[in-house]
Prior knowledge:
There is one protein chain. This protein has nine helices and ten strands. By secondary structure, the chain is of the alpha/beta class. The chain folds into two domains: 118 residues, D-Maltodextrin-Binding Protein, domain 2 (3-Layer(aba) Sandwich); 97 residues, D-Maltodextrin-Binding Protein, domain 2. The strands form two sheets. The protein has a five-stranded mixed beta sheet. A five-stranded mixed beta sheet has the order 7-6-8-5-9, sandwiched between helices. The termini are far apart. Pfam families: SBP_bac_11. Keywords: Metal-binding, Molybdenum, Signal.
Amino acid sequence: MVKRLFMLCMLLSTLVACDSTESTDPSNKELFISAAASLSGALNEISEKFEANNPNVTITLNMSGSGKLAQQIQQGAPVDVFLSADQHWMDVLASDNLLLSSTRINFTKNNLVLITQKKSPGIVRGLNELSKESFDQIAIGNPKSVPAGSYAKDALTNLGLWDELKDSFVFAKDVSQVLTYIETGNAEIGFVYGSDLHRAEGVKVLTEIDKELYTPIVYPAAVLSESEQPELAKEFLSFIQSDSAQTILKNYGFSY
């Protein structure tokens, strides 16, 4: 009996030792990616494919408004790759020498739409039909930190509507929150990307915003200068430009 207990203890010790060895295996690598919230559905799928192709790699995603993510990086957040929904926040990090400038790429594009609840009877054929009398609550990403909000502000300003509607705005931390506001009825209409329609079942498009009213929506990506896995991060940027990843982005409503 004592001998059996001894052998069992030895077996358990071996298993624990093996598990510890695996968890500290130097070949296992983790890649930290901060990305615009609008990329969440597509990027989850792209990351899973990258991990499948690289079994020793684990990707950790941090999804939020591009401005918030850039500010986190400025404050020292450990990030390997940054994927922004606009050029501005990538430029901000570049000016702070926080990017490996040679790695910066543009990998996809998007468009801006005005949405409402799917069950809403509302009809809007263009932004010029908006007025503070017709809509009390308009959800929009905070233009100071959310590119979708900045694009929407440009479009409304170009039509002379921003000041007229400003008392109706419900500012959101990212486009995901705009979608939530619309789906839950906490706002009547809202500005999001065309791709966001692929990750929200309870909304519908009222109108697509004229692309001449706002800066082209081009998504840049780059490796951070403080990345602990710069070569692996570069591999990920190559992968996101591949036919496989681009097909996923297209399926989620992005274009290139």
